[in-house]
Amino acid sequence: MRVFLTVIGVAGILITGACSGPKKALHHTAVIKDPAVLEQRADSLFFAAQRSKMLGDFRTAITQYSDYLRLNKNNPTAYYELARLFMEVQNPGYALGFARRAASMDPDNHWFQITLADAFAVNEQFDSAAAVFDKLTARYPENEDYLYNKAMFLAKANKPASALAVFSQLEKKTGVVEEVIYQKQRLLLKMSQVDAAATEIRKLIDNNPQELRYYFLLAEVYDANDRTADAIAIYNDVLRKDPDNARALLGLATYAKKSGDKAGYWAYLTRAFANPTYSIDEKVAYVYPYLQMMQLDSTKVEEGLELTSLIVNAHPKEAKAYALRGDMFSQADMLDSAQQNYTKALSLDSSRFSVWYQLMWIYSRKEDPNALLALSNTVTDKFPKEFMGYYFKGVASFLLQQYPAAIGALNKALEIGNGEKKFMADVQSLLGDAYHATGQHLQSDSSYEKALLLRPDDALVLNNYSYYLSLRGENLVHAAEMSKRSLDLEPESPTYMDTYAWILFRQDKFEDARHWIEKALQFPEAQQNPNVLEHYGDILFNLKDVTKAVEYWQKAKDKGATSVGLVRKIAEKKYIQ
């Protein structure tokens, strides 16, 4: 059966030629009185309109048909064509007007009647559309499509009982047909007649007991109406026919979970996942939420890993199975296993940048810059337009103290420029560090400023930028403001306390500097940091406590401090800048 209602697919065309008001003529035109010439010109306009319509130029076609009607108002086909065109350009009012005219001029033409029904429908006058098909059904009683459309429009007119009666009339003619039964059960559910709807679906099952779709349709009806026991019975019927049916197993797993039967839930779920005929995409979609749940519930880690193990066993040649398992291990912070699964996924399908990205992320988390550099070189060769490949290449090069290479990779990432905002800020921050390491201070300062524009409350950038300014003795007021801001953001950081103390020292605010450096030294990690110890010695010397200053300079040396002049400070017992 076919529904005749036209699907409107073309929108947004402005109608001017047929809908605008009369225009004042700029020139007088000769009046054609010869009927033969008029007929010839009209025919020319009609066929031109047909060509424009076939080419999809609906605006021009409407204008040409309208011009044709000025010469020949008695051709119903022109009104019919204009009705169809106005439906195409989504002007339902005009469509209905022209459709009425065509249908009234030639009431025996069933195409004109169908167009009138379509026009009523696009104007949401579904009762009237149904009435048109009622007349067509009376005229063509053998046509099942007309009866079907009458029922459909009655349903759209919110007359479910009337629509149901027509579908039942149609069923007597066609026998048990899936589409008719489906529409009947849908109407019965709308009328809250669940058992009657189920009876309709059982007709399909009785007619074709091997078609499992019908069982699932019935189970959905029961489930939607809280008839849990009936739905479970249907799923068990399916399993008697197909013991490994994944959809039935998942349905039963859902009910077991709702009832608190964890063992039953897990048993049904694992049976479904072990089935290799159950779509891997559906399995992935089912398991993916575990990646979020694992953050809130540690018990989900074991479940997620077991499910991904079943997916891998059922689909050993599918890269996405290993990629998902890698994601699961990564989320659980089991980095070696994550790396192994991502590598396996890439051996099966190396075209997925997302997997390469995850593997680079793993190497960065494992602090393995050599492996990260080798991998990122492969990625940038394979995916030269991917921002993150160059970002990780820059990270690896920086960690290996290959600063010019880091600068090159990071600037390439900026040139590509399609990274997330948070990573763009990271690139600028790391560029600031790399430029500082190579003595390019203007570029370093510029990069830090750009990073802070993107992420103004990045405590690490505020600290590093302010510290490097203090080392150069430049812009110390701005350095102090940034350093204090980093402490406002992370008040328990001894590193940031040390930076702030050092900036105060460079401003000759020795007592304030002592206050902050001693706050830092209350933390064990600061007591082991040679730079902090040396800074404390410098501050103490400028506060005239030479003995204690030398003591802390010596402690700094013992902890591995290698700053220029430290040995002279100890030997000469004086501060050397």
TrEMBL record:
| Alphabetized Pfam families for the sequence | TPR_16, TPR_8
- Residues in a coiled coil are none
Q: What domain of life does the native source organism fall in?
A: Bacteria
Gene3D superfamilies associated with the record:
Tetratricopeptide repeat domain (1.25.40.10)
This one is known as Tetratricopeptide repeat protein
Q: Where are the TPR repeats?
A: 76-109, 212-245, 319-352, 425-458
For this UniProt record, give its keywords in alphabetical order, as a comma-separated list.
TPR repeat
Matching entries from InterPro entries are given as: TPR-like_helical_dom_sf (IPR011990), TPR_rpt (IPR019734)
